[in-house]
Amino acid sequence: SRTVTLATLRRMKAEQAPIVALTAYDYSFARQVDAAGVDVVLVGDSLGMVMQGHASTVPVTLADMVYHTRCVARGLERAYLMVDLPFLSDTDDRAALESAARLMKEGGADMVKVEAHAAQAPVVEALSRAGVPVCAHFGLRPQRVGQLGGYRVQGRDEAGAQQVLDDAQALEAAGADVLLVECLSAAVAARVREQTHRPLIGIGAGADCDGQILVLQDMLGITPGQPPRFSHDFLADTGRIQTALEAYVEAVRTRQFPQLQHTFE
Ligand code: KIV
Ligand code: NA
């Protein structure tokens, strides 16, 4: 088994040591990311976009996730392995448990991540009750792009912010072990952190989280089109992949990343 566990992440939060997370989808990059000292590797359903060339994460299947998880798991010696439940693989307790079983038993995942809001807290509870370590992903939930009509910052007015805080509390109460927030103003993310007790990892959610995550292709500057505002091209700064990964780890650990220009106000 690998070195970083849920206990490590909890201790890092208690000691206010920033948690460094990054996505990976294959064996070669998993090795590099692990060697650079990343604490949590996510096999994200963002693989639908960066590996498969889809416009969203919606087409990604559970079989795709299992395949990429197996590839990544073989490359890790140290990092904790978090894996996404893809769109509509967790529509009820039974489906979620069967999906999680495949990711953990066939794939080698340490933890599953579910995009959820307060109304889906029962699914988080079912997973947790069955012994599955769970990360609840809220704020912007990219699997909902069809309903949202696009990707934008969430919780922008007070009612929206309150909804995000309600989600946070419901998901924590349901047993989520880690919380992950995407595309929130720094102030709203800070309120989530104040009102909850689990390690809080952010992407596009400002500096006031317990950890940071980026999509590997974004931080290497190879995502097609306009890069997201909240990312930074570490490869452009350093010229070598291994050095770029190390620079990202160092920047998060020393709170040099994210800066104000990566943050929504
Ligand atoms: O799929 C993914 O890469 C993610 C991160 C953006 C958190 O869910
Ligand atoms: Na995802």
TrEMBL record:
UniProt cross-references to CDD domains, sorted A to Z: KPHMT-like
Signal peptide, first to last residue: none
Predominant place of localization: cytoplasm
Instruction: Give EC number(s), comma-separated.
Output: 2.1.2.11
GO MF terms, alphabetically ordered: 3-methyl-2-oxobutanoate hydroxymethyltransferase activity; amino-acid racemase activity; magnesium ion binding; methyltransferase activity
Q: What pathway annotation does it carry?
A: Cofactor biosynthesis; (R)-pantothenate biosynthesis; (R)-pantoate from 3-methyl-2-oxobutanoate: step 1/2
**Which positions does UniProt annotate for 3-methyl-2-oxobutanoate binding?**
D45, S46, D84, K113
Q: Which domain of life is it from?
A: Bacteria
Subcellular localization, per the record? Cytoplasm
- Answer yes or no on keyword Acetylation: no
One of the GO biological process terms: pantothenate biosynthetic process
Q: Which UniProt keywords apply?
A: Cytoplasm, Magnesium, Metal-binding, Methyltransferase, Pantothenate biosynthesis, Transferase
Its GO CC terms are:
cytoplasm
Cofactor: how bound = Binds 1 Mg(2+) ion per subunit.
Give the reaction(s) catalysed. Answer: (6R)-5,10-methylene-5,6,7,8-tetrahydrofolate + 3-methyl-2-oxobutanoate + H2O = 2-dehydropantoate + (6S)-5,6,7,8-tetrahydrofolate
The record's similarity note reads: Belongs to the PanB family.
Q: What is this protein called?
A: 3-methyl-2-oxobutanoate hydroxymethyltransferase
